[in-house]
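Q: What would this complex look like in 3D?
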Amino acid sequence: MAKQAPQSDPAQDAPEVSAPQQAAAGLPAVGHSLRMAAEQMGARRTLATLLKVNQPDGFDCPGCAWPEPGKTHTAEFCENGAKAVAEEATERRIRAEFFAAHPVAELAERSGYWLGQQGRLTQPMLLDEGATHYTPVSWDDAFALIAEELHALDTPDAAAFYTSGRTSNEAAFAYQLFARRLGTNNLPDCSNMCHESSGSALTETLGVGKGSVSLKDLYQADLIIVAGQNPGTNHPRMLSALERAKRAGATIVSVNPLPEAGLERFKNPQQARGLVGHGTKLTDLFLQIRLGGDLALFRALNRIVLEQDGVDRAFVDEHCHGFEEFDEQARTTDRAEVLAATGLPWEQIEELGRLVLASRKVIVCWAMGLTQHKHAVPTIREAVNFLLLRGNVGRPGAGVCPVRGHSNVQGDRTMGIFERPAAAFLDALGKEFGFEPPRAHGHDAVDTIRAMRDGRVRVFFAMGGNFVAASPDTDVTEAAIRRCRLTVHVSTKLNRSHVVTGARALILPTLGRTDRDVTGTGAQFVSVEDSMGQVHSSRGGLRPPAPGLLSETAIVCRLARTVLGPGDTVPWEDFAADYDTLRDRIARVVPGFEDYNEKVRRPGGFTLPHGPRDSRTFPTATGRANFTVNPLTAPEVPPGRLLLQTLRSHDQYNTTVYGLDDRYRGIKGGRRVVLVNPADAAELGLAEGGFVDLVSEWRDGVERRAPHFRVVHYPVARGGAAAYYPETNVLVPLDSTADISNTPTSKAVVVRFEPDSGAPA
Ligand code: SF4
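A: Here is my prediction, written as structure tokens for the whole assembly.
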């Protein structure tokens, strides 16, 4: 029997702290998976769902975007996948009585963890203007209300349509078509806040803003560099791939300001040695780099390769552009600057240089540790320079591997969820549906917050996600949202974005990945694209939490018909009734999706084309792979300050908090902690277990404070500190974004420590 939702909101500032762990997964992961699953779903449902996740005839894990291996295991999920499934397939329910009992003002005082633990939403709810409580509303009335507010706008650009990366391909395509039929490209998405820097750098240098490697490439690599990523928590099944690569002879180098258990050793629960033995040591060389020092590291490695004449000249001459300018600059890379920026001993950099020169097939994997810095785009461009130098693009066992977060964040972008769409996509869309799409670029996530703050966006619609908690500069974002006329959230669970609202607010409960989706024409399935460009189907099998719940696709199609009117020529009703009709249209608009309905029904689905990987063709401005020149920069931190990175605990997925532990880092029962290197703590007078306020410093002189954090002495790289988001997103200035990609610099926030002002209300 599933456990009841917690009534009280547990304190989060009294964690137990013990030594960090040296290995990930193993029997404890199995135990935690089953315990947390049973608490939400009960034993029978736990079994029914966990044996279907990531299976060919099952549903895609609503967690991260790690791909499925060709042949899946009986249990093809990780601990955090089990938690993600349990969160969605929970037996807990939120009904009208809950909202009648809890005024929004009270809910706004509750933690995100408590809100999320209350259960699945079961009916549309309206918070009308001036009301204190959400009350039930019919679907038709909800759509009519949204239409009324949209029609009252003086321009379609006064509305913004946000997408969280869990949205299926089918719903995403219909959603962008609706927004563009309405007349706007205001299609911000969660990618704006995570891998946008990767997309920008890869599109410029290789012509395709996605990773070029497959699982097979990982298994046959000579050298795998994992930079700015913590797969043990954020992409746990990647550890199986690293273990397999390691057993095939690969060398693994991890580059990270924190020693992470998942990169140290993996106890694979699918194998005896993982359950009862020591598992597999993964990392051969750990470079504990300073926050933001990765650009300098790749610059140094490139100088070493050039000076050791390790260049693949044949590849460079045949496929690359801009080598001379790059070569000239790279040879000027200053060792002292590199040492200052990386905080690494030169011997370690040289050792990595030797490994690179001894390797024919090299892969670089990365995540937020590279993408959420001011110089993120130049850093990723320099990593591409590093791979191009020795021809490590378009070679089996080699390539670029940005590891995506949300399970379909890449698919949503492929479907057109992008505020800066390519002209070719708009041409194809306009031709297919007989209209002229808007051409002016829209707002990304940060610009949407600015536009709401300044009253230029008045209606905010979110397809999934928890925009308020995921965004930077919390106080600014919340004030901006409150300036809206209407905020609408299509959601499965309650979160902070439902209690920080516009003058009017709607919650539209939707089906999840685990739920059966039956329409008038029968059972429907959706499709997603993983981090390696594989598109496959996902079929939920559970009875929906309540009758009358609509799928994301049905919500978009009914809304579109209501807003655009009976005269709109798009067959929204057909799309909602039979997703094959939607896929047939996608097949004619999106390259690589020809015969979509046939290909997506194949076991494992299909892999999208990728010119650089498949044929070393580079659809860039030069028609070649572009070397780039990237000035050596690194974050500057004034004396007496540290550079804070926001990160996830092991019991968290993006802003969804599954529990209050961070087992691998030795934190139990609390989240208001700040990890500081003991030597830095001594210099700053920060005692272990003491409480402080974190105050960020930014050129606008605004005081951004996160009160009452327990100091934990932790082996982070000198000069840096770490704390969980969303609690510390309040410290990230809205205008502190990466050049070119406009991604918030959540890994580089200058903070000072002040005496504790006491626990937040
Ligand atoms: S690795 Fe990611 S996709 Fe796979 S089961 Fe875990 S959370 Fe889900």
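A: To summarize the key features: The mean pLDDT is 97. DSSP finds 31 helices and 33 strands in the chain.
Q: Very helpful, thank you.
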